[in-house]
Amino acid sequence: MTTPNKILAFAASNSSTSINKMLVTHAAEVLKDEIIPAANVTILDLNDFEMPIFSVDREQATGIPEHAQAFFKAIGDSDVLLISYAEHNGSYSSAYKNIFDWCSRINAEVFQGKAMVIMSTSPGPYGASNVLKTANDSAGFFAADIRGSISVPNFNDTFDAEKGRLMDTDLAAELRAQLAKLL
User: Fold this and answer.
1) What are the domain boundaries of the chain?
2) Residue whose C-alpha is closest to residue 71's, from 39, 40, 36, 95
3) How many angstroms separate the CA atoms of 181 and 183, rounded?
4) Are 84 and 23 contacting, i.e. CB atoms less than 8 angstroms apart?
5) Superfamily of domain covering 6-180
6) Distance (Å, rounded) from C-alpha 149 to C-alpha 159?
7) What pTM does this model have?
8) Helix, strand and coil percent figures for the chain, each rounded to 5
9) pLDDT 10s digits, 88-116
C-alpha cells in the first residue's frame, strides 16, 4: 500500500466557533507534521455546503444539489478522512446529517472505502461519546474504513485554543496513536 497523501478533514458542525473544527484541524496538522509529511491537507467547512433540507419530494422535484455532489466528490478525491463529530442532543448536528443524507442519495457508500480516523469533543466529561459511538457503529454501512477513533472530554481544560493543540499529554499521545493507524 502506498502512503496516503490527500487528507480531507472536517468538523461535523456548522458553528463558526466549533471546538470540533479546532480538534480536527489540530489532528490534520499532527498527521502532516509528524506522520505523513508529504500530506496535502484540505479542511472543509460545512457552511460552504449549505443546502435545502433533504426530502425525497425535493430530490424528485429539483435533483441532488451541486453542494452535495461537490462534497461527495471531495470525499472521493481524498485518500484519508479525518472527521470530528459535534454532538447535538446525543446525535449528529443537523447540518452534517443533511449533507450526509443528500450524499447518500448519490451513492449509499458515502465514505467510498476511505481510511478514516474519527473523533469528537465537547466541553463536558463525556467528550461527545454518544455521537462518536453512533458514527463508529454505523459508518461501516456507508463504506467507511475506520482505522481509529478518539473522544476528547473537557475540551476547554484539555485543549489550548490559542495555540491550537492538545495540552493533555495522554490525549495528545492517544491522538497520535490513532492517526498512526492510517499508515
Assistant:
1) 6-180
2) 95
3) 5
4) yes
5) Flavodoxin domain (3.40.50.360)
6) 17
7) 0.97
8) 45, 20, 35
9) 999 999 999 999 999 999 999 999 999 99
